[in-house]
Amino acid sequence: MFIQLILMVTGAILGALFSAFLPLAAAILKIRRKKKFLGVWKSRYQNEFLPRGNWIDEDVEVVAKQGSLVFRNVKNPVGSKYIAYGRLESHDSEIEGQWHEAEEGAHACGSFHLFVHPMGNILYGLCSGITDTGERLYTGWVLARKEEDLAKAHQLLRGADLLLASSSRESGDV
């Protein structure tokens, strides 16, 4: 009987400890997962306004806030100030989210989908938006920790695009 009492008390104490520390441990792991994405990145995206398709270089600062990665551009040569909120998906190999222009009175917005390079130093993908004439379009967006890695990010984006195009043709979807 005494052993049962000790086991019950020990079980209750362990249960209380696990219930208190398990959420804390999960939060610490989430922060560690996101930590590799935080800081300043070199960024290049395609302009959705005329002349369309021009690549615009800027810096982007990434911070973690309320479970999301928050992207804010700085040093944008065309005066754009956007904020993007993304979530890590697919075992941290993709970031999906929404963006909006932060300039007062602006209503430009859209979504984005970035692939994470296995080394974690390059992000590449697409973002959607609406042009000044109301057309919906998708443009490229690449980010790299170092300026010299932006070219590799472009190659990865083009490779993903070509793979998509070739698989669509083979299935007869195009």
Strand and helix map with partners:
Layout: H1 2-35, E1 39-46, E2 55-65, E3 68-74, E4 82-89, E5 94-101, E6 109-116, E7 122-130, E8 136-144, H2 150-171
Antiparallel strand pairs: 1-2, 1-8, 2-3, 3-4, 4-5, 5-6, 6-7, 7-8
Could you walk me through the main structural features you see in this protein, from its secondary elements to its overall organization?
By secondary structure, this protein is of the alpha+beta class. The chain folds into 2 domains: 1-35; 37-171, Lipocalin. Helix content is 32%, strand content 39%. The protein contains 2 helices and 8 strands; from the N terminus they run αββββββββα. The longest helix is centred in the first third of the chain and has 34 residues, at 2-35. It is elongated and about 85 Å long. The model has no long low-confidence stretch (mean pLDDT 83).
Quick tags:
single chain, 174 residues, alpha+beta, Lipocalin, 2 domains, 2 helices, 8 strands
